[in-house]
Amino acid sequence: MMLSGDEDEEKWLAEGIAGVQHNAFYMHRALDSNNLREALKYSAQMLSELRTSKLSPHKYYELYMRAFDELRKLEMFFKDESRHGVSIIDLYELVQHAGNILPRLYLLCTVGSVYIKSKEAPAKEVLKDLVEMCRGVQHPIRGLFLRSYLAQVSRDKLPDIGSEYERDAETVMDAVEFVLQNFTEMNKLWVRMQHQGPGRVREKREKERNELRDLVGKNLHVLSQIEGVDLEMYKENVLPRVLEQVVNCKDELAQYYLMDCIIQVFPDEYHLQTLETLLGACPQLQPTVDIKTVLSRLMDRLSNYAVSSADVLPEFLQVEAFAKLSNAIGKVIDAQVDMPIVGAISLYVSLLTFTLRVHPDRLDYVDQVLGACVKKLSSAPKLEDSRATKQVVALLSAPLDKYNDILTALTLSNYPRVMDHLDDGTNKVMAMVIIQSIMKNSTCISTAEKVEVLFELIKGLIKDLDGAAQDELDEEDFKEEQNSVARLIHMLYNDDSEEMLKIICTVRKHIMTGGPKRLPFTVPPLVFSALRLVRQLQNQDGDVAGEEEPATPKKIFQLLNQTIETLLYVPSPEMALRLYLQCAEAANDCDLEPVAYEFFTQAFMLYEEEIADSKAQVTAIHLIIGTLQRISVFGIENRDTLTHKATGYSARLLKKPDQCRAVYACSHLFWVDDQDGIKDGERVLLCLKRALRIANAAQQMANVARGSSGPVVLFVEILNKYLYFFEKGNTQITASAIQSLIELITSEMQSESTTLDPAANAFFASTKRYIEFQKKKGGAMGEKYDPINV
Amino acid sequence: MNYLIGAFKPACNISITFADGKNRKQVPLKKENGQTIMVPLFQSQENISGKISIEPVLGKKVEHNGVKIELLGQIEMYFDRGNFYDFTSLVRELDVPGEIYERKTYPFEFSTVEMPYETYNGVNVRLRYVLKVTVSRGYGGSVVEYQDFVVRNYTPPPSINNSIKMEVGIEDCLHIEFEYNKSKYHLKDVIIGKIYFLLVRIKIKNMDLEIRRRESTGSGANTHVETETLAKFELMDGAPVRGESIPIRLFLSPYELTPTHRNINNKFSVKYYLNLVLVDEEDRRYFKQQEITIYSSCEENT
């Protein structure tokens, strides 16, 4: 019957354990009766069970541990010469009579450890002999375990400084020598495992090797524990020797593991002082070794070390840690031609993290890292690998996170060059990250130069990149992006007006490239940003003289004019109209009549030519009226022209109610409730009367068209206008006129044909209540209202 | 021989004692009947002296034609059993013909006896030394008594003792270089050496060092060769790679070795060989045999 591999192994292990137990039993009996011969015989037989080749490392370990425990008892026996009567030197020979090498060497190591303890021979000699004799076992698993046993029993017996086995200063070297040799041999055996047996079980073998790796690594741990290994010795002796072995073994698994081991077991301080040596080994490793993880760990450790105490920082500078690391990474990348781009990038990310933590003040380092990265990236056109892209994003985000300040990133010349290598989507994501960082930290970008760099960085959002597939754009994402850009524009600010103007020009230059979809988002913030500058200039005016071509409101308005014009081609006329009006108002505040007039002209032209939708027209005309009303800069002529235009357009609106409302709104154009505002009562009355006529006409039209009377509410609205001007002291508005209007409304409301409009009723009722209230209040206003009856 | 004593009740008992019997070192000697007895140890050119006492049985007188003691060095070939070849034969007449009435003691002495060969007990040949006392009688047979003793000759450490160093191999398959620290070892010596692997293309399972004894007897067409493996000592477990150097340290003391004997009296030779055996995974054996000389040395007794 065939057994599966695992079952077989279980069986063999059970047999092995049984063999160990059986012989251990007789060995115990021999020990109890102090019979050395028998003890040696049965211990050798017991150890013969370890000669098996059938067990996997895992199972073999189990067997080994059984034998190991038994050997401890044997060691106790060897220690006590009174029990066996043989001197330790003779015993050392005696165990070597065993015919089989494996039991012989286990026994030799056991006696050897007692020999050292007895101090009858220098520890050095015994250790040297043991480590040399162990060469006889060339079978990888058996050899590894044997040598691991040797390492185990000798651990507390190394002639280290301060140990009882130390004889003179030289002996530390012996201890090191011993451990190094054992390490070297174990590593060779471990590596050799890979090349034995059929190729098809490679994976299984790698797994088995992984299980054994700590046996090898243990030696490095022991080395690190030797007191006498000071920096000097580590530098001159230990590290070069260990690295030599690591490099020469040419084995991927071993190189990775051992490099990591070195980094983990020895103190940071040593690494710092031996960086060159340690890093020098990296490019010599096999091309498949995951060197980036190794180096990342090293950099992690070093940066933790740097952060741990301020005292160590000078050391970093002294040894030029950054330069060395950077250099090494370059070499590794050059050496490992097959390393995927993601590997290289993640190395740079690690290096960047390192420098950000250790040398936060050295921006040039950061830039250097980015520069190196650019160099690497430029070997391929665009990044395709999504993992690599992620790494690049991490690379670019790191300085932002660290400094919380985009300004720092802006000083990095290579930053945008790295971004160039991202695909468009990622580029946008990165740009968003940048903007978010600015927003989060309320960073103010205050020079045109920085703005230039910034826009270079976020150009993915600012304009269509070459070959970008438009149809893939998600509308919502796009809006969000552009809103972010709009918000960003407000963060670009400088108190110095000249610089601010430069900033505005720079921004303008960039956003103008944005194309029709982006302009409606980006032009308004720019306009408002410029207007803010205008107001600022206005507050400090006078001081700006002297410099050639200082930032003047005039210049800014010219710029604005051109800017807003672009919206026409987008086309986004309504937006443009609003902006023109905003500009006009600002120009008014600056006392620049021609400019304001020009803006109004533009606004009217827009109204005429571009705004065709009737609803839009209504909104537009009200905006125009509202703005025009507030503007005080115009001379009579200009004002007349404009008000005339406005009233004209109002009366030409499509729907009667709209006409009516626009026209009564126009009445305010002739009555500005300021000290020296225009107060042309007659023309106010004309407007209101005209509104009344239109309201009447509307009413009749409604009667004709629908058989029901039109909206009474228009009359109520007009009534309210009357009341307003009445109160303001417009003599053209008389109490009798109001009285007749009230009566008109009352009769209209009672007419049968009028459809019931509760809102209009309520409006009218509250208007009447207001009049009553004014009458009762008395005083001048009360008297004025007195003649009106409701 | 003994059966003579058994067949006819001997007329007298003969005992042989050595002069320094109490102090002299006794060594084990394996008799042909398989028993091991302790016998005194001598070396060449020693004086062998002592006393013979003859005691008639039950007070009878013993008539004799003379009493003599012989010191014999004999070689016995097993294929020619019972036929001794005496290479040494010394005789001392102890008494003239006469009668012995009571216990009578004769001192004897062989001074500075040449005993060039050592006692040897091999597979096909035996070399022994024996004292033979003969009470000659005309009738009823002579009374004979034997006393074995062992001879070992110590040689001073050889003045020339080169190491054995050799490179051997099978082309494109296996090349090794081995070295044994000496070519001549004493019986309690240690063989130190190493095997250096220059080229390994076969999957080696293990490597042993064997000590082989080659005993050749007879001469010419009748030469008989017997080879025994006295020690099988595992040197290496597993497959080495190129560049490995495997140490050898083999203590000779646990093994029952004799010195090398070369052409002893034209009768036999005993030679020792170190046989280095490599076994591959298909159990094929590759070996190289080198002769070594074993000698006894005074050192080994200290």
From TrEMBL, chain A:
Recorded superkingdom: Eukaryota
Entry keyword set: Cytoplasm, Endosome, Golgi apparatus, Membrane, Protein transport, Transport
GO cellular component: cytosol; endosome membrane; Golgi apparatus; late endosome; retromer, cargo-selective complex
Pfam families in UniProt: Vps35
Keyword DNA-binding: no
Keyword Cytoplasm included in the entry's annotation: yes
Family affiliation: Belongs to the VPS35 family.
Function of the molecule: Plays a role in vesicular protein sorting.
UniProt-listed PANTHER family: VACUOLAR PROTEIN SORTING-ASSOCIATED PROTEIN 35B, VACUOLAR SORTING PROTEIN 35
Protein name: Vacuolar protein sorting-associated protein 35
Protein source organism: Citrus clementina
UniProtKB/TrEMBL annotation, chain B:
Name of protein: Vacuolar protein sorting-associated protein 26A
Domain of life: Eukaryota
Main location as per UniProt: cytoplasm
Subcellular compartments: Cytoplasm; Endosome membrane; Golgi apparatus, trans-Golgi network membrane; Prevacuolar compartment membrane
Keywords: Cytoplasm, Endosome, Golgi apparatus, Membrane, Protein transport, Transport
Record's GO cellular component terms: endosome membrane; Golgi apparatus
Family from the record: Belongs to the VPS26 family.
